[in-house]
Amino acid sequence: MNPTQPEPYATTREHLRDLLEPLRMTLAHRAHVQVEARSQVYGDAGEGVVDAMTLAFLMDNLEAHRVALPQDLSLALRRGGTRVAAREAATVAAGAGAVLRWNTLAERLALRPGDRQLLLAALAPHVSTAFVHAYRRLMDMSDDGAIPTRRLADLVAREDATRWEAAAALHPDERLIRSGALVLAGAGSAFGTLPGVARAWASPVVVDFLLRDGPLADRPGCLGGLARLLVDDRDDDSDPPWSSEVTRHVDALAEALFAADPETTPLVAVVTSEGLAPLSVAARVARRGSRRVLVLSSIATGRTAESAVAYRQAALLARLAGLVLAAPIPPDLASPGALRHLIDETRGAPLLLASEQPLEALSEVEGVRMRHVRIPPLGEVERRWLWHRSLGDSGISGETLAELAASFALQEPEILAVARHVAAEPSDDGPPTFGVLAREARRRLSRGLEGVAERLETRATADDLIVSATCRAELDGLAEYVRFLREVEARHDIVTTRGRGTSALFHGPSGTGKTFAAAVVARAGHRDLFRIDLAQVVDKYIGETEKKLDRVFTLAEASDSVILFDEADSLFSKRGSVSSSNDRYANMQVNFLLQRMESYRGMSILTTNLLESIDEAFRRRIQFTIHFAKPDYDERLRLWRLYLSKVGSPAIPDDVVEQAADVFDMTGAHIRSAVIKAAVAGASRGGPITARVLVEAATGEYRALGGLVRAVEWDGLDD
Known about the structure:
This protein is an alpha/beta fold. Helix content is about 50%, strand content about 10%.
C-alpha cells in the first residue's frame, strides 16, 4: 500500500481507538498539569500523586510524563480528526464500511456532535483497558463502570460554554439519555437529575453493537432478559388462508408502520387478535418489512425509573438491529397511564401493541398516531390449516384433523398448545386418537368456564341410569340426535332456523336422576358437562346477568361442552305482567336467554322440578322435553340392587330388598342416600351391611322425607 494513502480500518475497535485519541491526549494533558502543580508543592514526591503507570498507559510510547505535550492542543486534535476522516473514506472505498459501526449508530440515533463526544467518553473503558485505570484514578469511575456526569462534562469540554452544553446534553429529557445510549443512575435519574449527583454508563446495547461480532438482532441477551427475539420460522407462503379483508388490513398496517419516521412522525401499530396469537400477527407484519420482532418481557403497571430504562434499552436494540418492538398487553395492565409511559419511552423504534382483546384504554391516550388492525376468530378453514401445519407430520389422519377443526373453536394459541402437549407425551400405540386430542382441546377451552360453572365428571354409563322405558327411549333419541346432527348437516346442507345447537329440558320430581342423566348424555357424546352456578350468573345490576350468560354460552360453544342449568326455575321462569321495573328487567333477561339459546351451537340441558314454572314461550323452543317420573316398584327394586352391589352387601336377603322397594316409595337419590348411610353404620360396627341396618337406614331416610312407614313384618332380619 502507498505510504501516503490512508490505511482503511480493519476493525470497529481500531476505529474507536482513533476517535478516542483526542480524549486520551486531553486526559494525559490534565494528568501532566496535575503532576506539575503538585510537584511545585511537594517536590519530587508529587510524582506519586498521579500514578506514573497511569501516564504510561495514556501517553503510549512517550518516554515519561515530563515530556511536554504540543503547545497548541486544539491544533493537534483537529489534525487527528482530519486523519480519522481520511481513514474512514478509505475504509468505505475498500468496501469495508461495515466496520464503521460508530457512524451507523450516530446516524440512526441522530446524535449531535456534543452527544457523540459524551458517548465516546463513556465508551472509552470498554474500548481500551488503558482508560479503565485512568478513569478510576482521574474520573472517579466506580467498580460497576458508572462515571459521574459532571466528570464526563468536564472531560469533553474545551471551555466553560461547551461545559454547560455538555451538562445540558446529559439531562434526562435530552436525546442522548432518551435514546437509551447513555444510562443514568442516581437521584432522579429517569425523570430529572441533580447536577453532580447522577452517574452514567454506556448502554450495554451500544457496547454490544460496537464491539461484538455478528448481527445484533441475534443477541437480545445484552438486555439481560428485558426482551426476547420472537422465533418465527415461517415464510410468506405459509400464511393461513386469511380472508382478503384481513390480508389487506395487515398489509396496510405494515406499510404505514414502516413508512412512518419514528423520530418525527411516530406511529403506533395496534393488533387485536382473537384468532391468531397476537404476536404471530406481529411477526407477519414485521415480515412485510423484512424484519424480525423483539418482544418485551413485561409491561409496567405505572411510570417508574426502572421501567423507563427497560423500555429505552429495548427500543434502542430495535433501532440499531432493525427490529419491530412488540409489546403484548394483558387486559389487566392496559391503563392509559401505563400505555402512555410505554409509548413515550420507546419513541424512535417501530412499536406494535398486541392484545387478545380491544384496548379501550388507548382511547384515552392523546397525541399519538395509531393504526389498528383486528384479526377475528378463526373459522373452520383456518383452523383446519393450523391443525395440519401443527400435527400433519405426526401420523394423524387428515380426517381426524378436519374433525377437530369442525368440532372445536380453538384459536391459534390453543391449537399450538395441544400440539405441544401431544409431542411431549408420545404413545407407543401410534398417533393420538381423536378422543385423546378432543379431551386435551376441551380441557383448554373449558378453563374459562370454571369461574362461573362447576365441571361434573362421572364414570357412569347408560347402564347405571335407571329410569322408565319411555324416559330411556327419549334419552337414547337425544344421544342419537347429538351424535349424528353434524353429519346430517354436512351431508345435506341443512340450516335450521333456530340455530345448530341442541336443547333439552329434563323435568320431574327431585332425585329422579335428571342431573345424573345429563352427565351420562355428555359422557356418551365425549363432551364435558358444566353446571352453571346461578349465584355467580344472576346479578342485581342491570345488564350484568346478560353479559355473564353470554360469556357462558360463548365459552361453552368454543369448548363444545354441554352446559347444565340445574334447577333453572329462577332464570327461566314464566314472564309475568310488567308492574314494576324489576318485572321489566326480569322479562328482559328471559328474552335474552331465548335469543341466546336459539343462536347457541352447542348442547344445553335444563332441569326443573316443576314444568309448569318454566315460561311457555321458552318451552316451545326446547327441542327435547323429557319427563323423569318417580320410579315405580320395578325401578325402585333395580335401584336398590344397583346401589347395594356398589357397596358390596351379599348378606342382604333378596326378600328384604324386595320389601324395601315396596315399602319405601323413594326416588333414586334417596335410595342411594339410604344405602350410603347403611354402609357407614355397618363400617362403624366393624362389619358389612346387615339387613337390620339397611332397614333402619331406609326407615330414617323415608321419615326425613315426611313419609309414613306402615307396619311391616320384615322377613330375613338378623337379630
